[in-house]
Amino acid sequence: MRILLTNDDGVTADGLEILAEIAHVLSDDVWIVAPATEQSAASRGVSLHNPVFARKLANKTYSVSGTPTDCVIVALREIMLDNMPDLVLSGVNRGQNIAEDIGFSGTVAGALQGMQMGIPSISLSQARGFYNHNKGRVNWKAALEHGPKLIKKLLKHGWPKDVVLNINFPDVKDDKVAGIRVTTQGRRDFEMSNIDKRTHPRGGDYYWLTYKGAKSDPAAGTDLRAVYDDYISVTPIHIDHTHYKTVAVLGALFED
User: Fold this and answer.
1) Which helix (DSSP H) or strand (DSSP E) does residue 165 occupy?
2) 177 in a domain, yes or no?
3) What is the structure's pLDDT at 222?
4) Reported pTM
C-alpha cells in the first residue's frame, strides 16, 4: 500500500513525524508532500494567484510553497502521477478539529482534496488544552498508540468514496483513552472567534485574530462530546453543504 502524508502545520511539524510513525506501521511505501510553512486555518484554499514551488527534501519527502490543498494537487498531478497513492493521511494536527473547526481546518482540507481526486482519505488531529493547557505541550500518546490499529480497522471495512473520515484523538493523561465513538459534527454553544486589538508604535491599530478556549456543553453523539469524555472521535464528513430541509421549505415559495 502506498500512502501520501500531508498536513497544515508544515513539513517540519512534530505531528507530521507522528503521522509518519503511524503510516510506517501500515506500509513501507510512505510519501510526504507537506507545506513549507505553517498553513493552519487555511481551509480549502488554493494558490490560484501565485506560483507554487515543490522542493525535494529527502527520498519520498517534498515541501510545497502553498496550502494543504496545493500539496495534494501537486502530489497527485506531478510527484506521484505515475504511481498514485492508495491512501491519503492528513495530520496529525496539533490540536482538535471538531465542530466549527472543520470548516477552517487545513488538515481536513488536505483529506477532502484527496477524496475529491479519488483517493480514500483520513484527517487526524490530536486534541490539546484539556489536561496540559498553559504548558504548550501536546501529548501524542493517544494518536501513536491507537492510530495504526484504528486505521487498519477502517481500511478493512471501507467507507463511501465521497466521504472523509475525520479522526480526533482526545487529550488524555498518559494513554487513558475511554474508547472509540463514531460521531456527528457538533456545534459549540458560544462563538469562539475573537480579536486582540493592539496599537502600532507608528500609529494606528492592528489585530491578532484569536479563539476563545472554553468548553461548551455538547450533545451526546457529537465529536465535541466524545473528545471531552476522552473518546476517540471518528466523524464521516463530505463536501455537500446543502441544508436539505431548507431546500424543501424555500422550494415551496416558488411552486406554481
Assistant:
1) strand 164-169
2) yes
3) 97
4) 0.93
